[in-house]
Design brief:
- It comes from Nocardia cyriacigeorgica (strain GUH-2).
- This is DUF3644 domain-containing protein.
- It holds the Pfam family DUF3644.
- The chain is built from 14 helices and seven strands.
- With 349 residues, it is mainly alpha-helical.
- The strands form three sheets. Strands 3-5-4 form a three-stranded mixed beta sheet, with no helix packed on it. The protein has a two-stranded antiparallel sheet with strand order 1-2.
Length: 349
């Protein structure tokens, strides 16, 4: 059997560190440790990025200034690998929400005091949740679905977030936050653009609602619903059903592999009709049908988008399904149809 590549061991260690971090975070009572979560999720990210760069044969070692062939060394003589901050500079753009989230925990690491960790856990829950989801997404994006952590993790059983008697306790914990931590969080978030602060890859917030009613065999204990899709009446109706609904600031997952970016979708349509059909024409038609984002860069979708497009966190934009391509092809196959829908005469290819 062939010896596995070196990056394989580094990736396995990254996944192991992530699972250890999640374990420390989800432990009950005094066994829970925010400090250990930060240490291990830090190592998880560092190993993941090292593994990917090793696989691509990219640099991961510090070199002496002005001496490109000479590596910096640790006290034991081994080559000094890049720290996480250095990896982030090479793997993510400066304004990337994933990078901002990781750098938040790098900075927070120096402000953790064990006696205040419950307060810190309370105010940073959204960021911690985002950090884990981001890690999972990046593992899959870089190494494929086979490396998912999902097979080893289940949704935790808990009571605190669903019990109104604990709301006051949560408020008290927030008030007990040390001033040094509060100052760090305030100043760090003030340095971020609003688009990053509101991105689910920086802070992933959940609203949990207990629900009642008869259970059917098809019901799941947990159902995921977009809050933007619900009216006040919808929310009231949901409370009358079985289980728990999690209303998450997260969009549908575009992971089946059939989705296309706008340019690719336009090209797919053009290849099957006798006329030129570019991105501008594609945008005109999908807006006419009320499909896709409300405006460029928006995460809010038009009212008739279901079944035709999905929001992709990877591309930070909407992607389009083959169903939409098929519909456009059938509605643009004659000059008369084309002019009526696009608003101008078609140009033959």
């Amino acid at each position: 059997m062939a010896r596995p590549p070196a990056w394989r061991h580094t990736l396995d260690e990254g996944r192991r560190q992530a699972l250890v971090a999640i374990d420390f975070y989800n432990r009950p009572g005094d066994r829970r440790s925010m400090a250990d979560f930060i240490v291990h999720i830090h190592l998880a990210w560092q190993n993941l990025l090292h593994a990917d760069r090793m696989r691509k044969k990219a640099e991961i070692f510090y070199r002496e200034l002005g001496k490109q062939r000479k590596f910096k060394r640790n006290p034991d003589g081994s080559k000094k690998t890049w720290d996480l901050t250095q990896c982030l500079k090479h793997e993510f753009q400066e304004n990337d929400p994933i990078r901002a989230n990781i750098e938040f925990f790098i900075g927070l690491r120096n402000h953790i005091e064990h006696r205040f960790q419950d307060s810190i856990l309370t105010v940073t829950a959204a960021e911690a949740h985002a950090c884990i989801i981001n890690f999972e997404s990046e593992v899959i994006r870089r190494f494929g679905e086979s490396e998912t952590l999902g097979n080893e993790l289940k949704f935790p059983v808990f009571i605190q977030s669903l019990s109104p008697s604990h709301y006051d306790e949560q408020r008290i914990l927030r008030r007990q936050l040390p001033s040094s931590v509060s100052t760090f969080i305030t100043e760090y978030e003030r340095s971020l653009a609003e688009a990053i602060r509101s991105d689910e890859r920086y802070a992933y917030r959940l609203l949990l609602l207990p629900m009642k009613g008869p259970k059917t065999d098809a019901d799941m204990a947990l159902n995921f619903v977009r809050q933007d899709d619900l009216s006040r009446e919808d929310l009231q109706a949901l409370v009358g059903r079985e289980g728990s609904v999690i209303i998450a600031e997260k969009y549908r997952n575009a992971a089946s592999g059939d989705e296309m970016l706008p340019g690719a979708a336009a090209a797919a349509v053009e290849s099957r009709i006798p006329y030129k059909f570019g991105l501008n024409e594609f945008t005109t038609v999908r807006k006419e049908w009320q499909i896709g984002p409300v405006k460029f860069g928006s995460k809010e979708q038009l009212p008739k988008s279901d079944g035709y497009c999905l929001y992709s966190p990877t591309f930070n934009r909407f992607t389009y399904l083959p169903k939409l391509v098929e519909r456009m092809v059938s509605e643009l196959d004659t000059a008369e149809k084309y002019k009526k829908l696009v608003g101008k005469l078609p140009k033959p290819k």
